[in-house]
Each structure stands twice: as structure tokens, then as C-alpha cells.
Design brief:
The structure is a homodimer of 228-residue chains. The first copy, chain A, is an alpha/beta fold and 228 residues long. Chain A has a single domain, classed as Ribonuclease Z/Hydroxyacylglutathione hydrolase-like (Metallo-beta-lactamase, Chain A, 4-Layer Sandwich), CATH 3.60.15.10. Helices cover 23% and strands 24% of the residues of chain A. Chain A is built from six helices and eleven strands. In chain A, the strands form two sheets. In chain A, strands 1-2-3-4-5-6 form a six-stranded mixed sheet, with helices on one face. Chain A has a five-stranded mixed sheet with strand order 7-8-9-10-11. Chains A and B meet through β1, α1 and α4 of A and β1, α1 and α4 of B. Chains A, B: One of its GO terms (biological process) is hydrogen sulfide metabolic process. Chains A, B: It is found in: Mitochondrion. Chains A, B: GO terms for molecular function: metal ion binding; sulfur dioxygenase activity. Chains A, B: This is Persulfide dioxygenase ETHE1, mitochondrial.
Chain lengths: 228, 228
């Protein structure tokens, strides 16, 4: 991954989810972060056309708003392995924890869920934050072991501690934006620039509706989106 | 623009349009390619937060599927000037033609419309192709001076002649993809890899519906999206 990077940001419109394809130009080995089951055929097609070998389908956490594509990718692409946090308690081929390296540095960033990971690609000054940090926002903390206190600590200690010019790629955006930076979020994030107690108040009073796909998504995502 | 580039790809979901913000990290001077009237407030907010000076709101062509944001941006950001092709016959502060340089190289790529331009940023190996070339596709050629023969010649002579590793950013994508390369489109574009006569046949038999927003969009876009 230290040579030239092949990088594709891919959007699934029903759940406004971003998936990220990263591959080494030399070895052609690839990973896909947060695939969505509805767009797996598109993604497998791109992998094939670019001549890549998909090694890992990686989830930043157990998603509640869409079914992961990792199980379906495994069936389409032999040799592809699913990856998720040990703390998620979900089933996967590889269960990782804070500090593990998959060529990407793994940082534990709980608060939206217990098993939230942020993946950092230092060679290209990029981090993939899942739902821990969104552009000018963050994931909700009112279900799936959510905790505003833990989320605040995670973002400040694990993401805002990265260099200012690191590009941050979230798992979702609902406004058509695609990327942000550490410097921008430290300055303009409407929630995480507050004090911790203000942040907790904000998060505890969002009064959000029950997530539409959660009852189908959570059981499916605990087993990679497909029963083996 | 030769120093570090600030680059943002921005999506408008109603018309599946991409806008592109490009700015010099040193001078902070910025251009916005293909703004959409619905997302102008978002875009002006990003320009402001990043401390940029928006010099030009640039259109790749007179769009038929959405109203351009260039007029509204001019009213929100004093000093911002609108740019479009001379061949479009639309009203704008600056009317450019093939070969002009706005720090971006201007390439005439007619066929979807007469006034279609592709903007090339050689320093960063990027080109913004408007509707002349889409990811694995191209713009339609059945209205607004459309001509499949001219589009085929434009893409082959002006876009496929760029180096293989140039990244191509289209004005639209309907599948959630964000970028492609010259090499990929030369190999995998389902229409433009055909012979010219096959391409003309395909384009003349698409039987597409009349564009939903065209009757409102065309007159508005001939005057930058706003009456002065």
C-alpha cells in the first residue's frame, strides 16, 4: 500500500453510505471498506475491471441502517475475507482490535457502537471514520451500546489527534459532501467543537426516529450480511 | 494552482450532478465547476469555511437537467464571475473557447451540446468532462444541438488523447461512482469503445424520455441561472 494507491469512493443512495475501495497499484491487492449489499455487484465489477484481488471486506462497525455487503462479496469473490472489530461480537473471518495493522492502522473509536473502528492510511494521510465522525457531525448514540461520553473521548483522542491535514472519509453523508479534514472538523464540527458536557446534552436531546432498517440490518450484520 | 490543491467533489442528488471545488492552498483562489442552484448555499458555506476566494463559477455547458448555480453564487459572493463557452451562446461574464487557459486548460468537446467544454488540470492529472464523457457512458445526443458523430470525435480526440492515468470527473453519475481514468474508459466504456458507426447507431436508438427539468432549465441556464 506504500506504492501508488488506487482509490475509489462509492456511494449507495438508499442509506447514503460511502464504501471505499483501496488497492496497491503494484500488487493489485485491495480492500473494500463498508460495502453495502445492494451495491455489491457494482463493486465486484469494478474490482474485476481494475484487475484487483479483493483480500478483505472490512466493516467499520455493525451498521444499523443497511445490510453489509461483506458476506455477499465473499460468495462472489473466493478468497475474500470479512473483517470487523472483536468488540462488535459479530461473526467474521478476521476480528481485529485497536492497534492491529492491516496495512491500515486500526483505531478503536467506540461511542456510536462498542465495536467502531477508524482505519488510518498514514502513507496517504487518509482516515476512514465510519460513523464515529461525519462531516460536520457524528453518528447517533442512542442505540447499539451508544454513549455520547465515549464518542466524545474517541473522536478527541483518536481522530482529532491525527495531523490537521489528514483527509477524513466518513461512512455517510446526507448533504452531498465527500470528504473533510482533521483541521476543518476541529474548527467547524457543530457538535464536537463543544465541551464534553454540551456534547452529551446535544446527543441526548436529538429525539431521532427509530432507524428504518435496523430490525433487518442488525441481525444480518452480526453475521456479515449473509448466513454462512 | 501549481501548489497544493484543495479539491472537493460535491453531489446534488435530485439531478445526480457533481460540482467540483478547486482552489490553490497558497493563494486561496478558487473555482467551482458546474454548481447547482439547489446546493449553492452549501457550496458558499464551504467556500467561506475554507477561507477561499471564489473567482469563477464555471459551467461545462448549458445544462438541460438542472438550473445552474452560477447566477446565485454571483449574488452571494461579490467578485465571483460566471464562465461558459462562447459556442453555448449563453450569457456569462467570461465566455471562453477551446484553448483558453483559466489555470485550467479548456478543451472544446461538442456533441452533447455545441458549447461543451472539458477542463483539464494538468498539474494534478485531472479532467472535468461535463456530459461529454460519463463513467462507462456519455451524455445523450438527441437535443440541444446533439450529434453522436461530433461527440465520438470529441471524446476520442480531446479526452482519450490525454495520458492513461489522468483521472476523469464527470458532471453526473447515476450509480454512485465518483471518478474514472482515461485508461479505464478507453477499455470499458460501453459506448465509446465501439466503432464510430456502431456508436452513432447506439446513440440514435436510446429512445430516452424527454428530460424532466429541460423546459425550466434551458432558459434559466442561458442567463446563468438568474435574471441579472
Amino acid at each position: 500500500m506504500s506504492a501508488g494507491l488506487i482509490f475509489r469512493q462509492l456511494f449507495e443512495s438508499k442509506s447514503s453510505t460511502y464504501s471505499y475501495l483501496l488497492a496497491c497499484e503494484v500488487t493489485k491487492q485491495a480492500v473494500l471498506i463498508d460495502p453495502v449489499i445492494e451495491t455489491v455487484d457494482r463493486d465486484a465489477g469494478i474490482v474485476k475491471q481494475l484487475g484487483l484481488v479483493l483480500k478483505f471486506a472490512i466493516n467499520t462497525h455493525v451498521h444499523a441502517d443497511h445490510v453489509t455487503g461483506s458476506g455477499k462479496l465473499k460468495s462472489l469473490i473466493p478468497g475474500c475475507q470479512s473483517v470487523i472489530a472483536e468488540a462488535s461480537q459479530a461473526k467474521a473471518n478476521v476480528r481485529v482490535k485497536h492497534g492491529d495493522k492491516l496495512q491500515l492502522e486500526t483505531r478503536s473509536t467506540p461511542g456510536h457502537t462498542d465495536g467502531c473502528l477508524t482505519y488510518v492510511l498514514h502513507s496517504h494521510r487518509m482516515a476512514f471514520t465510519g460513523d464515529a465522525l461525519l462531516i460536520r457531525g457524528c453518528g447517533r448514540t442512542d442505540f447499539q451500546q451508544g454513549s455520547p461520553e465515549r464518542l466524545y473521548e474517541s473522536v478527541h483522542s483518536q481522530i482529532f489527534s491525527l495531523p490537521d491535514n489528514y483527509q477524513l472519509y466518513p461512512a455517510h453523508d446526507y448533504t452531498g459532501q465527500t470528504v473533510t479534514t482533521v483541521a476543518e472538523e476541529k474548527k467547524f464540527n457543530s457538535r464536537l467543537t463543544k465541551t464534553k458536557s454540551e456534547f452529551v446534552d446535544i446527543m441526548n436531546n436529538l429525539n431521532l426516529p427509530y432507524p428504518k432498517q435496523i430490525d433487518a440490518a442488525l441481525p444480518a450484520n452480526m453475521v456479515c450480511g449473509l448466513q454462512d
